[in-house]
Structure formats: structure tokens, C-alpha cells
Amino acid sequence: MPQRLSIGATVFLVLTVLLGLYFAFAAVQGPSGILRRIQIESETAELAEARDALRAEVTRMQNLTRRLSDDYLDLDLLDERAREVLGVLRADEIILR
């Protein structure tokens, strides 16, 4: 005849299994779980890409600013910006659109 578990042992076993399931669920779905970590890593990668793009834009703008500064004047860039902003052309130029 198989031996049956007592009520106390059965309750303990059920509680242990339920706690184990709860902690397994929390480890996957919880605020510090695996899925949240994957989401945070993905957001971190996206933000790093955005940061790098902004750094490149800042570097480009710093270069343009330096090239138009009083200490270093790039005449070609100045001519290009004047043409673009003011719509200026020379008498011997033809515009193609």
C-alpha cells in the first residue's frame, strides 16, 4: 500500500511549488526580469545610435562654424552660404533646375 503524504506535507509542497512558479514568473516578466532587461538593452542601443548621430552633427556644425569664424575664413564656404541664403549669382552663371 503506497504511503500518503500528511496534510502539512501536502500544503508545504503546494506552497513550495507556487512560490517557485511565482519567482520563475517574476524572473521573466517582473520589473527586473529577463524581458525588461532585453527591452532596456534595445533602448540603450537605439539611444547610443542617436547619440552618435548627434555627435557627428555637432562635429559637422563645429567644423562649419570654425570655417566661417574670424580666425579662419573659408572663402568657398562663405560664397556657397551667401549664394544659398541670399540667392546671389554672378552675371556669367546659368542656373539649371
Q: Cα distance, first to last residue?
A: 97 Å
The computed structural class is mainly alpha
| Rg | 34 Å
Q: Beta fraction of the residues?
A: under 5%
Major sheet summary line: none
Bin the helical content. over 70%
Count, helices: 3
Number of E strands: 0
Average pLDDT confidence is 88
Please tell me the total number of domains.
Answer: 1
C-alpha geometry = rod-shaped
What is the ordering of alpha helices and beta strands? HHH
Q: Which residues sit in consecutive blocks of at least 5 with pLDDT less than 50?
A: none
Describe the structure.
The protein is mainly alpha-helical and 97 residues long. The protein has one domain. Helix content is 71%, strand content 0%. The chain contains 3 helices and no strands. The protein has helices at residues 7-29, 34-67, 75-86. The longest helix has 34 residues, at 34-67. The N and C termini lie far apart (97 Å). The relative contact order is 0.04. The mean pLDDT is 88.
